Amino acid sequence: MTHPSRAKSKIAGGIPHMPFQEFTINSLDQLLAELKKAKIPNAQIEVSTSEDGRHYACSKPLVNVLVYTSHSLGEEQEYKDLLALYQYCPDCKNAARVL
Asked: Tens of pLDDT along 29-47?
């Protein structure tokens, strides 16, 4: 699904995909490079795997990619503001921005 340029320009914080957008990408490294290239202000990227989350098409475990900012509220308090969540299937080479 292709989004018009006016919609793409309104994506919050420079994140390169619309929420719930599915796309094909060759590798997790390529997805991470695309996110870093977007230069999302103050964003950090975290990658994790989950045995509970499986791709519906092939039943293989998905890789989760979290894009967030971190804010300190004092010496010991910190909160994270989630900007985007992606899921990637390394076997099918499919990714989706979930949030």
From this structure: 999 999 999 988 888 999 9
Question: 1 and 21 in contact (C-beta within 8 Å)?
Answer: yes
CA distance 96 to 87: 5
pTM beyond 0.90, yes or no: no
Name the nearest CA neighbour of 36 among 21, 20, 14.
14
The domain in which residue 38 lies consists of 5-97
The span from the CA of 9 to the CA of 62, in Å, is 29
The total number of structural domains in the chain stands at 1
Query: Order of strands, edge to edge, in the sheet holding 44-54?
Result: 22-24, 94-97, 78-89, 61-72, 44-54
